[in-house]
Amino acid sequence: MTMTDPAQQEQIIGKRRIRREDPKLLSGENRFADDLVVPGALHLVVVRSPHAHARIQRIDVNAAKSMPGVVGVFTGKDLESEWAGPMPCAWPVTAEMKNPAHYPLAVEYVHYAGEGVVAVVARSQVEAVDAAGAVIVDYEELPPVLELEEAVNDTTLAHEELESNTSFVWALEPNPDAVDAAFRDAAVTVSERFVQQRLIPAAMEPRAMVVVPSPMGGDYTVYSSTQIPHVLRVMLALTAGISETKLRVIAPSVGGGFGSKLDVYAEELLCLALARRMRQPVRFTEERGEGTMATIHGRGQVQHIELAANADGKVTAVRVKLLADMGAYLQLVTPGVPLLGAFLYHGVYDVGAYSFTCTGLFTNKTPTDAYRGAGRPEATYAIERAMDSLARRLELDPAEIRRRNFIAAEKFPYQSVAGLVFDSGSYHANLEKALDKAGYSDLRREQEQRRAAGNPRRLGIGVSCYVEMCGLAPSRVLASLNYGAGGWEAATVRILPTSKVQVVTGTAPHGQGHETSWSMIVADKLGISPDDVEVLHSDTAIAPYGMDTYGSRSLSVGGTAVYLATERVIEKAMKIAAHQMEVAEEDLEYVGASFRVKGSPEQQLPLAAIAFEAFTAHNLPDGLEPNLEASISWDPPNFTFPNGTHIAVVEVDEETGHVQLVRYIAVDDCGNQINPLIVEGQVHGGITQGVAQALYEEALYDSSGQLLNASLADYLVPSACEMPSFELDSTVTPSPTNPLGVKGVGEAGTIGSAPAVINAVVDALSDLGVTDCPMPATPERVYQLIKQASSK
Ligand code: MCN
Q1: CA 663, CA 340: separation in Å to the nearest integer?
Q2: Which residues form ligand 1's pocket by a CB distance below 6 Å?
Q3: pTM over 0.95
Q4: CATH of domain 6-30+488-634
Q5: Yes or no: domain 298-472+638-791 corresponds to CATH 3.40.50.1010
Q6: pLDDT averaged per 10 residues in sequence order, the chain, 792 residues
Q7: ipTM of the complex, rounded to two decimals
Q8: Rg (alpha carbons) of the chain, rounded to whole number
Q9: d(CA 241, CA 757)
């Protein structure tokens, strides 16, 4: 342990510290699931439905079975006895929430192109792929339901056994009479329809897994590229009917997830069931093209948002009607996506009346689920686009309309009309800082000059302000939403005899730098070097309890658990130090990794000595257990509410419709920052994903339900080359909901950015009369908008 001189104890929290995770990633030392060498592992390849909706008439696996290297070929029927229940969803199936039976392989019907039909297991990947090609499946094609506005009419059904395409209707209408009154009395109203196109997550590492039975039998180690090793273990146990004690789930290095690995996938269940059946390891790695159909999609909503406002632009009511695409089945948290947004459609604004209704609909497309930001980017997009529409109606500047409506800083903690208590924030300060950084008035001047000069490179400035709910979630709140799990997080901190520190966390990082951040929290508290702190995670044998990583919860819930466990260890060490020094605990203070007598700093015992004493246990106070270790499970009292203002500056080429993002300014408030370098990295990634939705990405289907851009050659994922250098800043309003004063940041960039960019595109064309631009703002789409507007 590197001891710090008490007088010079350096604060570690808040410092820009390079991620300890990176050298291994950069040098290729990390091991991802597909890198794991497992002798004798069999390879699973899944034969998938080519149709969006069809009845399976006949499956002939005879030819495939006799192919070289093939060990087994299984249909859905062959594997029926393997399942103790259907594929998991965190919401129970009720009369109010329908979920058609969903098993790892389809049995009678297929409901989306890409659904698994036959599992082929062979000694090598090549042999499995060849044999999969020899499987014959005859289908009777059925009409697919693809569009939400068609699905809601139930003229065609996505699932033959359901009477309707509606999975659930969910309403949050705290004051319906007030909403009606506000619209009746409004000086001005705005009514908009926005489409949240489907997005295909594109983590660097595709999904990969290998299940290894123990040589003794009965126990299985599941290596999976997952964000949720703990939840996965529970769900695998329940679905495959295996005792949880017989399952060890390890997420090795995970090359990104963005929500797409927050799920329990058919292939994870298949590998487990087949390893059990064949008593051999079984592995699966998805191909990129396969993954575009077999891994969940994000977004997929049609939003109707209405604002009522008085003549000054003060919004008096927000009314939202949402159609949300579940895809063919409810996956682990599919219904939770629109529900998360439900509380946030009034955004950062103090509105009196609020109404939200969502219809969750089945279609014959890949299931949707949580994709980075889940529900909150959609809500922010709708309100921030609608606020710009209101500004245009009233001929107000977009910044000014926001100023007039913000929740004022002195109102925090703020009781929102949707039922949440926002913890802290200073929305005005965010906006002013961002405007200042952008040089907003100069930009507006330049815009005017370009317009006056008829410059075909039109300038657009887009403002977007957001608030999100993170730290998902207090367990009691989850219970009230009928969600089948808690929202706590677990941590253990132990100081080993040689005084090195081991931290065990229930979070499961997949690119967020938890090892660096958690080591900083502990080192700061203990007054030691972060290099002396090791962080263990993502292995249920080492960290048996955990709720994993999603919803920007890890720091505010998991980091807090780590912090509190460290505090507890210090409390225990204090007892030992007091006993050794023969003084009362109250007379001791802990400074710079030493316990010292208050007022007599020369009388001190270093933590290292106490750690060794706790190990030998030669002279402990009566009744005190040996060893310095503490475990905590912490349930947060509230969400945290990160917020910010983002400004996008675009140039729209009038002659080609091409949109160039020329500047991007973001001011984010994630409370106290543990590591500003990591915070910036998270914001960079998030902004890029939001810009991607605004300008590039969209899952395109043809009328028969075929995904048309099922490869990275056709599905445009932007890289750093398409992005300007981001101009970042922050405000800090510490969250009172946790002792670190932190809020989440992992999704912030995604939430603020798409509306900022589209507001900028529309702003560039507003003098032509353009009021909307659907996402993504492709050159063709923008060119058509310009052409239509110019011909009016
Ligand atoms: N942090 C900080 N100070 C703050 C807030 C956060 O120093 N005030 C640091 C944390 O210590 C942590 C990181 O920022 O190292 C992110 O913390 P947090 O905001 O708690 O978010 P999570 O770790 O829970 O990550 C969740 C979020 C989600 S939901 C997805 S999806 C996501 C993401 O973050 N997927 C990612 N970031 C990703 N980043 C990468 N590289 N890859 C992914 O797949």
Answers
A1: 30
A2: 256-259, 372, 510-514, 517, 549-556, 559, 670-675, 678-679, 682, 685, 742-747
A3: yes
A4: 3.30.365.10
A5: no
A6: 54 97 95 97 98 98 98 98 97 90 97 98 98 98 98 97 96 97 98 98 97 92 98 98 97 97 98 97 97 98 98 98 98 96 98 97 98 96 98 98 98 97 98 98 98 98 97 92 94 97 98 98 98 98 97 97 98 98 97 96 96 97 97 98 98 98 98 98 98 98 97 94 97 98 97 98 97 98 95 81
A7: 0.99
A8: 28
A9: 48
